[in-house]
Amino acid sequence: MLQLYVGNKNYSSWSMRAGVLLKQAAIPFEEKFVPFDSFGDAESKFGKTIREVSPAGRVPTLVDDGFSVWDSLAIAEYVAEKYPAKQLWPQDAKKRARARSICAEMHSGFLSLRAHCPMNIEAHLPEAGQIVWRDKPGVRADIQRIVQMWTDLLDANKGPMLFGEFTIVDAFYAPVCMRIKNYALPVPGHITDYIRRVCALPGVKAWIDAALEEKRFVVEDEPYRAAR
Prior knowledge:
Elements: E1 2-6, H1 13-24, E2 29-33, H2 45-51, E3 61-64, E4 67-70, H3 72-82, H4 93-108, H5 111-116, H6 126-135, H7 137-157, H8 168-182, H9 189-200, H10 202-214
Parallel strand pairs: 1-2
Antiparallel strand pairs: 1-3, 3-4
């Protein structure tokens, strides 16, 4: 069985992509939870544990019969090839290329949104969201791009997901849905509706429910709240 190493579900957007993808696609896997402790410290418990399976020392990492695949995009590609019947990418060649482009954009872009609205599923941070929206033009630009992207895809592919049915793209943007929702960033109604549909997916709901049960406060991931 596949093994997927993930970090704290409340905070780890990279882990969420891979975890949601496998769960929603009903691909059997064993989850290996590696809680965050000290980032950048190879001698921390997190560092020692994850470096046993990943030279990059990061989550998520997928292990298949002793073979490690790290980085969420590489994991998605590996799983799509291993389970072609799941149709995790669109079947049309041009749509598949577009889907890959959009995942790559998520993978390397939207830096302002990531920096100023880190994923925090358990928190409700509308006040922080209002300040970020007012003071950070990069966040407004990122959201504008996301709204246009999602609108175009939903219109072209007739929903309910970005390419019609669930694909890797929806898994990759699930953490963005969490950010928009939890920071109450202003988006049009049809975007809010898409976010609701994503949150209702069994794979996403399972991740959210587990995040809410963690009760682990990580100071490095909490720029807007003090330790409780």
